[in-house]
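Researcher: We're teaching a course module on how sequence relates to structure. For the next exercise, students receive a sequence and then see the predicted structure as tokens, so they can try to spot secondary structure elements on their own. Here is the exercise chain.
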Amino acid sequence: MNIIHIDLTKLIKNKLYKIIFFNYLIVITFLFLVPLDSELVLSFIEREKQPSNNTSFFIHFIIFFVLYFLIDLSFRNIVANILFCLLYSILIESLQLFTSRGYQSLDIFYNIFGLISAILIRFIYFKFLK
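Model: And here is the predicted structure for the students to work with:
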């Protein structure tokens, strides 16, 4: 009975992580693709108060840092998770060519920097702390 309970708990937890991951992915995709000069964005953040490039780079770092941890909790294939995050970063930035947001190579750099930081923390945790 105890083994069944543990497996059921693990299954529910994994499903919950996947739900959180996919919802996070939907939200960040929307946020990355909505033009900053759209009425929707301007109704929340005035043009003068929108993040500068330096702040934007930090935001990209944090978003991809969190993205990697969420995908890692949801799917245990490390190589596929890293590949997905890399391709997603390039895809999102490329799709911004078709919006007024525009393409910035440094965004991809900070996305990857956030991803690498998350991978290193995960490695240190499992190698030395667990």
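Model: If you want an answer key for the exercise: Residues 2-129 form one domain. The chain has five helices and no strands.
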